[in-house]
Amino acid sequence: MKPPARGAARLLSGAGLAAALLLPTAVTAHTAPHSGVPMADGKKGQELPAMPSALDADAECTAASREKAKKQDWSRQRLDLDRTHGHGIGTGVTVALIDTGVAPDADGLDGRVTADGPAADDCVGHGTFLAGLIAGRGASLTGVAPGARILALRGTDTRGAASPALVAAAVREATEAGADVIAVTVALPRRNTELTRAVADARRAGAIVVAAATPDPPTRGGTDEIPSRVYWPAGEPGVLSVADMLPGGLRPDRALPTTDIDLAAPGAGVVSGGPRGDGHYLGAGASVATAYAAGAAAVVLAAHPDDSPDAVTHRLTATAYPADIPQLDAYAAVTTVLGDPGASAGTERAAERVAVRDTSDADAATDRATLFVILGSTAVLTVLWAAFTLPRARARGWRPARAAGGGSAED
């Protein structure tokens, strides 16, 4: 073999081998943003226990985490909380959190949580986790509105199963207590008359109602067979319906399908604390996104105290990052100068619904196309390598090049 030919063969052989070795990495890198599994923190390197949104009937309460986050997670960076807090921290605003309850003495929340009766006993830990996202204080895990107060209310039983009666009663209690923001982080599959009335009364009383667009996905089984539907109270008029998103802005693969979403916020690989100890957990789902949106509403309301509830909702949606589902931008919501907050446009925008484009087929097609391109490139390189190498190997009697040529540069 001539030296140039041998060099070309070696080059093509190396390229084919590199393509084969890079194939799994390339496919994984492309498909990772679409995964519904909570990431460590949007980056590699932080492995923390998962915070469940509900417990099995025979499961013990969520144990204290022995792990601590080593750095700020992607969600807080995405919401630009460091700059946002330079313009407001939600001081003077009360956020009613309707979930599994909140431990009043939880790390980072002590002194700013009102929780009576069952609401003070958070066996699941999920409500306390969300409270930290709204109003927690910590070196790197500060909530969106660390100056706000939390009114903890139970919308579930002790295991985390929600019911219309409990959620409706909690909304009414929040209204009677004068909560400024009501965050309903559970979602119900059917509309309930009593809950509809409770939400309407809360809005008439001047509360901003923020609700999860869907329940958090089940821990077992797939979600492919679950039909798309509107969940409640997110579907009620004037309620800000919030869904979860990945760092790339897409909804997770396992997110339950729905048709009406007003806003998307970080909802995967999010870090917060729990009701026991000072360790950290990972959380995911629309409930996490709703907590972030409720915290942003508190900061906006504190910074713009003359704004009506509809104007605050309008500000959150109008300043959101433009996408198929508008993405929460806490800093822009606080700092952007809008028109007359009392104009009818605000009310109309708050009542609008954003139709969610189902991107699952397109995402799958993109993944397949990427895989085919990589496989095709590998096949072409393999054929070229064989075309250069096999005839020369046959001519040498299948002996190594050095043995066939006695160390000569010629075949």
Automatic annotation (TrEMBL):
Keywords of the record:
Hydrolase, Membrane, Protease, Serine protease, Signal, Transmembrane, Transmembrane helix
**Residues forming the catalytic site:** 99 (charge relay system), 126 (charge relay system), 287 (charge relay system)
UniProt signal peptide: 1-29
Q: Give the transmembrane ranges.
A: 369-390
All copies of domain Peptidase S8/S53, residue ranges:
90-329
Q: Which Pfam families match?
A: Peptidase_S8
Q: Which Gene3D superfamilies match?
A: Peptidase S8/S53 domain
Q: Which family does it belong to?
A: Belongs to the peptidase S8 family.
**Name this protein carries in UniProt:** Peptidase S8/S53 domain-containing protein
